[in-house]
Amino acid sequence: MVKTKEKTMKLEALGSRVLLRRDSPDAVTEGGIILAPGSQLEPMEAKIFGVGEDCLYLKRGDKVLIPPHAGTAVSLRGNSFIIMPEEEVMVRIHEVT
Question: 59 in a domain, yes or no?
């Protein structure tokens, strides 16, 4: 579910596709250097917002690693998402406490 100022919309991935959003890139390095917006690499970490009915390994809310230029980028009502096949996801991240 994605909430915007006007409405709430439900996005549903189809088949074995996943719908995800990349994490925001860091604007400051660990050493304190401020990076210009165009010089930042695309983050590899992403969060899954929806999975198709044929997805076997991933579920909504999973954190994953994806290739830098993976999938198809889409923008809906000011929200940026990536749609890609489940098979292209490289790693699922498990938080350990």
Answer: yes
Confidence of residue 72 (pLDDT cuts 50, 70, 90): very high
Structural domains of the chain, count: 1
Separation CA 46–CA 88 (nearest Å): 13
The C-alpha atoms of residue 69 and residue 65 are separated, in whole angstroms, by 12
Most confidently predicted of 3-12, 32-41, 63-72: 63-72
Nearest to 23 by CA among 40, 4, 1, 3: 40
CATH label of the domain that carries residue 6: 2.30.33.40
Cα separation, 92 vs 62, whole angstroms: 7
